[in-house]
């Protein structure tokens, strides 16, 4: 049995993972069959390594993963960072000041750099319930004390899409602003995306973009879809991602990745 792509790139939240952070047996089996047929599977996630590592270990995943919205290329088998790009803190502070001058105060969180970098959460920031650890800060000035991969912002009144659009209008020449999930608007180094991280990892694997199929659900997956040969949006995906996808599969709760992989394996 062969497979038409050499690389399968999957987002995690809303794509590979179900709402309870589990991966279905059907999806595990479909990925195993595709890799047995010669494809490599690579996780490409907005999560930084500390929030990704336990999932990769549970999968028995030994290869490369792109984490932190493309900032980190991580070797899961060796538990080490191969590349890591940080957010310029002076530039990020300037961008944040400009956003708040235009839109009013925002709630702030941040992801520290490194294999064990903490996620820092400031007053008012709404954290999604679940097992992922974070450190609460009384004083957001502490955010700037060590290297960061990214900032997270929330607004007391504006929804995610409006906040990201307005922030991009104000600071788009300084940093990138993306919607990565519900209540997750991120400030990233300018030019950084899942596509830049995926291209680095693919080069290490000796795989071309024309040999890559990608799965995702949010606007931060748009660059990855632009880079890959074939982009598959989940049924639960954001409308902006569906608009640029080559196809739409079933939802993450309905084995959307497996549906596509099984079809491709059956056609091979």
How would you describe the overall organization of this protein?
This protein is of the alpha/beta class. It is 30% helix and 24% strand. The protein contains eight helices and 14 strands. The protein has helices at residues 25-36, 53-59, 89-103, 160-171, 194-205, 222-227, 239-242, 256-267; strands at residues 7-10, 40-44, 64-67, 72-75, 80-84, 107-112, 119-121, 135-136, 148-154, 175-181, 184-189, 212-216, 230-233, 247-248. The strands form two sheets. Strands 5-4-3-2-1-12-13-14 form an eight-stranded mixed β-sheet. Strand 6 and strand 7 (119-121) form a beta hairpin.
Strand content: 15-25%
Structural class: alpha/beta
Q: Termini, distance in Å? A: 7 Å
Average pLDDT confidence is 95
Strand order of the largest sheet: 5-4-3-2-1-12-13-14
Query: For the CA atoms, what is the radius of gyration?
Result: 18 Å
Spans of at least 5 consecutive residues whose pLDDT stays below 50 are: none
Can you tell me the overall shape?
globular
